[in-house]
Structure formats: structure tokens, C-alpha cells
Amino acid sequence: MNQDIQQWVAGLGLEPHVEGGYYKQLYKAVTGEGQAQYTSILFLLLEDNPSHFHRLSVDEVWYYHAGQAVTVHEITPDGQYLQTHLGPDIQAGQVLQHCVPKGHIFGSTVETGYGLVGCMCSPGFEYEDFKLFQRADLLAAYPEHKDIITRLTRG
């Protein structure tokens, strides 16, 4: 891990995330009934440590913060493959924020170096809302997306 990345991880108190990358939960607003209204994390992705394909049962909004552009790869419930590039170069089609709708299968990559984003879920993220996919399951369902599925799943 290079020095810039080590400084982000140490300085922000980030920890490895089960889906890949590094994260830290910053906010969790809880109702009187104990349900999370929203949650917000910082998420650092590396070129060799992407976010692997997973699905949430809540919407997740991504916000670009620093580093290289982050590509969010999505497979919609009807099997369509989408890409969104989060970054500062709006003339090149990058966006500063993007909402991944609940039910989409998604992961994210950085081509070089690192990308730092924020992610906010509403209602709030809970691990029971999270499903990390196995390669064989996605390849069986979406063989037409073999290349990206192979890249964003663990064997």
C-alpha cells in the first residue's frame, strides 16, 4: 500500500470492508423504535481492492470526495449492465454523486491508485440488507456479463 493510501486509511480510521476496499461508518440516525433512518460511510477503493458485486434492499447514494474516478458497475433486476463514473471531470461525463437503487447488483472499481467516496443509505444500512454474490451464481444468471462478473466476484 503506498504512502498516500496509508495516510487516508490511518488518518480516517478506515477498516477493511467485507465487500472490498476500506470504510468507516460516520453517521447512523436511529428512530425511537431503534431502526436506522440513514447511515453514512467513507469508502476507499484501490485499483487492486475493488468493491465486489453485492445487492442492498435500500437505496445507496454515492458521493465523490478525492482521488481517481470511481466506476460504479450495476446489473439491474432485468439484467441490464450500467456504468456510472464518479469523479470531478464533469466535462468527461463524470458525476459527483449517484444513487444506486435498491435491488441493483453493484460493485465499483478504480483503474489506478485510489478513489475516496462517501455512501449514504436510506433507510440505514444493516448487514441483513446486504447480499455478497458468488461468481458462479451471477454467471449462471447473467452469462452475457462474464467479464465484469469475473472481475468483481471472488472465485
From TrEMBL:
SUPFAM superfamilies: RmlC-like cupins. Transmembrane segments: none annotated. Coiled coil: none annotated. Residues 6-132 form the DUF985 domain. CDD domains: cupin_YML079wp. Gene3D superfamilies: Jelly Rolls. It comes from the Bacteria. InterPro entries: Cupin_DUF985, RmlC-like_jellyroll, RmlC_Cupin_sf, YML079W-like. PANTHER family: DUF985 DOMAIN-CONTAINING PROTEIN (PTHR33387:SF3), RMLC-LIKE JELLY ROLL FOLD PROTEIN (PTHR33387). This is Cupin. The lineage of its organism: Bacteria, Bacillati, Bacillota, Bacilli, Lactobacillales.
